[in-house]
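Figure 6 in text form: structure in, sequence out.
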């Protein structure tokens, strides 16, 4: 299997300075490449990733550019190329406003990546990156498999390393002989075919008041002031807390389902369309797509099977007699927390 693992860094001053310098260089390269593409378009010409990569080799004769690892710089060009491809794909599909690639400010470019496994080395809790230096890593779990890619990411509370590994071994679980169907919803996050329900935690809804207060604090500050920067960090902290709560909840639920059932059937919902309806905020708060992806990941690791089924009439067709009719999916167990009730 191929998996990515995220660890928090404990950088020293030298490593931190190198990361900031590399990030600024990659951002400048991204903006320069975007400006070049716009200029070529105005002249009726075009330029792609291959040509810009060749020009990067020439630019690297400058000492300040040569000091940065080339694979980090190439990743910036490839990121721009993917943004262009996604833009033209949206134009072709006619999906509303296409969203042309934009220039990246200081706070809109927060990571750099290398796909060269020779550029970094992890020995125990010490991470060594070519031309960046070394720093300690908070190893919250061992790194399985063989490290192949490295992404250094800057977040509001520090720097993180995302290590992509291949050859990760499966850990199959013993068969239980039980299958289950999963009906995702908003009243309850999930209703199982055996009648059990899982509460919808509504992490964003519960934090709306705190978010509104933090955002109002930002609006009262003077632009460019240090107090405004501190207020913006509080907003980022609030959003990160919501995201991490959602992540934890979904991983735990996916793990529990995979441990109990050999086969899990889940609705193939048109989530993108639902996210554009009047239920958009609640749908995005639930994060169904993220949960389904996690369910597939956990199932693959445990040797289980997950399948998507058509969502048509799944809430109205009786699994026993096949009769169709509106049914109440709210269970008396819905008021109980997920971890206090069995799922089988």
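Output sequence:
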């Amino acid at each position: 299997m191929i998996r990515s693992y995220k660890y928090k860094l404990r950088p020293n001053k030298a490593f931190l300075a190198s990361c900031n310098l590399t990030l600024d260089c990659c951002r400048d390269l991204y903006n320069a490449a975007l400006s070049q593409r716009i200029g070529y378009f105005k002249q009726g010409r075009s330029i792609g990733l291959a040509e810009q990569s060749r020009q990067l080799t020439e630019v690297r004769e400058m000492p300040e550019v040569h000091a940065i690892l080339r694979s980090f710089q190439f990743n910036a060009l490839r990121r721009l190329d993917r943004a262009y491809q996604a833009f033209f794909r949206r134009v072709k599909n006619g999906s509303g406003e296409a969203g042309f690639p934009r220039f990246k400010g200081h706070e809109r470019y927060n990571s750099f990546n290398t796909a060269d496994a020779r550029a970094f080395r992890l020995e125990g809790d010490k991470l060594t990156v070519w031309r960046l230096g070394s720093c300690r890593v908070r190893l919250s779990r061992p790194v399985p498999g063989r490290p192949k890619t490295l992404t250094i990411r800057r977040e509001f509370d520090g720097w993180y390393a995302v290590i992509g590994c291949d050859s990760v071994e499966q850990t199959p679980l013993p068969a239980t002989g039980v299958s289950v169907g999963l009906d995702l919803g908003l009243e309850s996050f999930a209703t199982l075919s055996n009648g059990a329900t899982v509460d919808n935690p509504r992490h964003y809804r519960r934090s709306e008041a705190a978010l509104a207060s933090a955002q109002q604090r930002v609006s009262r500050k003077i632009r460019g002031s240090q107090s405004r920067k501190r207020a913006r960090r509080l907003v980022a902290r609030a959003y990160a807390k919501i995201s991490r709560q959602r992540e934890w909840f979904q991983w735990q639920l996916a793990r529990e389902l995979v441990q109990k059932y050999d086969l899990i059937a889940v609705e193939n919902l048109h989530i993108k369309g639902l996210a554009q309806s009047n239920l958009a905020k609640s749908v995005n708060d639930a994060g169904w797509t993220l949960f389904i992806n996690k369910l597939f990941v956990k199932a693959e690791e445990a040797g289980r099977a997950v399948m998507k089924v058509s969502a048509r009439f799944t809430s109205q067709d009786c699994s026993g007699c096949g009769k169709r009719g509106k049914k109440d999916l709210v269970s008396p167990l819905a008021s109980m927390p997920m971890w206090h009730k069995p799922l089988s």
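Caption detail: Residues 140 and 162 are 13 Å apart (CA to CA).
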